[in-house]
TrEMBL record:
Residues 635-662 have a biased composition (Low complexity). Residues 1-28 form the signal peptide. Coiled coil: none annotated. The chain crosses the membrane at residues 181-203. Keywords: Membrane, Signal, Transmembrane, Transmembrane helix. Residues 663-672 have a biased composition (Basic residues). This is TPM domain-containing protein. It comes from Cellulomonas fimi (strain ATCC 484 / DSM 20113 / JCM 1341 / CCUG 24087 / LMG 16345 / NBRC 15513 / NCIMB 8980 / NCTC 7547 / NRS-133).
Length: 672
């Protein structure tokens, strides 16, 4: 049984002080009530008496019961039964949880030292079998505070009772041919058998506990190794940070210093969790697993952060070592940008001559911007070269500034080349976009009109856009023309899509109408044939549905040309009604046939029992013969009726006994 950890630490003392200050009544009050409630799972332990191994053992026993029998056992441990009787608490919990006929509930109030079993009145196990399990299996374990053992013993007891393997009152298996011999030879057979049951449960508990211990030991080893490795890594990173700061300057390594501070904070939390595990206060298996998982997660996070900083340190050291080379590259790169800018300026001049300013607004200043960035890179190179021997961090910063300026300059010149390519391809793309928009305009003319006024405005706009795109003006800015065509197409599609869907639905309806009408005609003819052949048998239901089906069929005819979708809907509704009429008429005929067959059978049996029509019973008034006359048959029926009446009386008596106890469910319990 897990024990609460004493609050010996400062945090624990502060927590107690805070709780005492704000809630003295709660600290002094009784344990919180635990009223009956719906169970969320098979094993509920709000009393906290099961550790991980105990729970695993109980679940295994419940699974075994469910595998061997039709029964499912639910177990709940609470501190108290909330001031009510155990029977009321268990029964109300069973009802609230929706337990069925083959479900059993074992409720244990550990502080009240009471337990209760609650089962459905129709459970196949007898009261005697339930009482045996309670007395011989559950109570001995509860008296020893073996909370898991009580549930395991209950599951085993119910399984044995259901399969015929329950122990008899003398310890022998019922019906066993050698039970007396075993007792005669061994003398202490009862203790041996009972010991066998207990030892089996003990073995299972020990195996489950061993599995949990092995898992925790493996986690403990991994957590300890990770903690040592990460502690070493943090110390090594602190030394590297000092070297890097001396080489690169405090400003350069400031992000790394912040990352190392966070790593130390996280590592301190991991050490605190390790100390909680090693403080000598027993921890439950779930608590140990949680703390070990926290250590492993923290170590992984810190290690990942340090690895990232290590890679960045390597890059900065490389910059420090190669600062003279990088500064020279910045100067030569500036010259290369100037040379490329001259070529790009020619390209931009050609584009300016061919296209409108609106087509080049994004790149018109790019050549000048690239040349300015080249000058900036050249200045940074000169500034860094001047201090490369005396102030290496400043030289590195200048080299980085020059490299960044060159990258921006290259991007500006690349944009001019990309614009030239886009403008060269724009006419072909514009032509394809115009073709697509022309298709939409044609659809608008076909689907629009007075019935679709929303189409007119976007269709008119589309025609205007097409006219402009086809004109010579679009050549000055084909990109803008293509953009306008795409916008017009989207606006027109938005109003045309519902009309296109309606058109497709209309086409489908036109195709399906002949098939639906033929199927309806067939059903109507069939239903009419049954009604006409059995006019006195078929009732109003079939006739009403057939009439409605015919009405709907007639209403669909004028809609066939103007609204085939509505016509098809009417025919499909008529099909459903005609099918229902056919089935209803058939059912009426079948019922009449069954009634006549039953009447004929009764007439034959009645005549035979009276000995009529040459029967062997001795005539109408005879009571002789093997089948008996009216008097003999009546006597036997009265006897049978009496037995059934007696059975019902017995059932009522049993029900009365349950009512007198105030329970609608069965099961025993009591103190332990």
């Amino acid at each position: 049984m897990p024990h609460p950890r004493p609050l010996t630490r400062t945090a624990g003392a502060l927590l107690l002080a805070a709780v005492a200050a704000v809630a003295p009544v709660a600290l002094a009050g009784p344990a919180s009530a635990e009223p009956p409630s719906r169970l969320a799972e098979e094993v509920t332990d709000s009393a906290g008496v099961l550790d991980a191994a105990d729970r695993a053992e109980v679940v295994a026993a419940l699974d075994d019961l469910a595998d061997r029998t039709p029964y499912q056992l639910f177990v709940v441990y609470v501190r108290t039964f909330d001031g009510t009787s155990g029977a009321d608490w268990a029964d109300e919990t069973a009802v609230a949880s929706g337990l069925g006929r083959d479900d059993l509930l074992l409720a244990v109030a550990v502080e009240d030292r009471q337990y209760q079993v609650s089962v459905d009145p129709d459970l196949a196990l007898t009261d005697a079998q339930l009482a045996d399990v309670e007395t011989d299996r559950i109570e001995p374990a509860l008296r020893d505070d073996d909370w898991a053992g009580a549930a395991v013993a209950a599951a085993e007891g119910y399984a044995d009772a259901a399969t015929g393997d329950a122990l008899g009152p003398d310890g022998a298996r019922p019906g066993g041919p050698d039970g007396g011999l075993v007792l005669g030879i061994l003398g202490g057979g009862v203790l041996l058998v009972a010991g066998g049951v207990g030892s089996a449960a003990l073995v299972r508990r020990r195996r489950a506990a061993a599995a949990v211990r092995a898992e925790l030991e493996e986690l403990d080893g991994r957590a300890s190794s990770a903690l040592v490795a990460v502690d070493e890594a943090v110390q090594a990173s602190a030394q590297e940070l000092g070297f890097a700061e001396a080489q690169l300057g405090a400003a350069t390594v400031a992000p790394f210093a912040a990352a190392l501070t966070q790593a130390r904070t996280d590592l301190a939390g991991a050490f605190a969790a390790r100390q909680q595990l090693d403080d000598g206060v027993p921890d439950t298996a779930p608590d140990r697993r949680r703390l070990l998982a926290t250590i492993l997660e923290t170590c992984t996070r810190v290690d990942t952060a340090l690895d990232a900083q290590s890679a960045e340190f390597d890059r900065l050291r490389d910059l420090h070592a190669r600062a003279p080379e990088l500064l020279a590259d910045a100067a030569s790169g500036a010259d290369a940008v100037d040379a490329r800018a001259a070529t790009t300026a020619t390209t931009l001049a050609d584009l300016t001559a061919r296209y409108a300013p609106s087509a080049l607004v994004a790149v018109v200043d790019n050549v000048a911007g690239a040349r300015a960035l080249a000058d900036r890179a050249r200045a940074a190179s000169a500034r860094g070269t001047a201090v490369v021997g005396s102030d290496r961090p400043a030289a590195v910063a200048a080299a980085l500034e020059g490299a960044d300026a060159l990258a921006q300059a290259a991007a500006l010149l690349d944009a001019v080349d990309a614009a030239a390519t886009e403008l060269a391809q724009a006419p072909a793309r514009l032509a394809a976009a115009c073709t697509a928009l022309e298709t939409d305009v044609a659809d608008a003319a076909r689907l629009g009109g007075p019935a679709a006024p929303a189409v007119e405005a976007p269709a008119a706009r589309a025609r205007e856009v097409l006219a402009h795109a086809r004109s010579a003006q679009s050549a000055a800015d084909p990109l803008a023309a293509a953009s306008a065509v795409h916008a017009a197409e989207q606006a027109l599609d938005q109003v045309l899509d519902p009309l296109r869907e309606a058109e497709a639905a209309r086409a489908r309806a036109v195709e399906r109408l002949p098939q639906a009408r033929a199927a309806l005609d067939s059903l109507v003819v069939g239903a009419q044939a049954i009604i006409q052949s059995h006019r006195t048998v078929v009732g109003p239901t079939a006739r009403t549905r057939l009439a409605e089906a015919q009405r709907l069929a007639e209403s669909s005819v004028p809609l066939t040309g103007s609204d085939p979708v509505a016509a098809l809907q009417a025919l499909e509704a008529a099909l459903g009604l005609a099918d229902s009429a056919y089935r209803s008429a058939s059912a009426d005929v079948d019922a009449e046939r069954a009634r006549r067959a039953a009447a004929a059978s009764w007439s034959w049996e009645s005549t035979s029992s009276r000995g009529g029509f040459g029967g062997s019973s001795g005539g109408w008034g005879s009571s002789g013969g093997s089948s008996g006359g009216w008097g003999g048959g009546s006597s036997r029926r009265s006897s049978s009726s009496s037995r059934r009446s007696s059975s019902r009386s017995s059932s009522r008596s049993s029900s009365s006994r349950r009512s007198s106890s105030g329970r609608s469910r069965r099961g025993g319990g009591g103190r332990f």
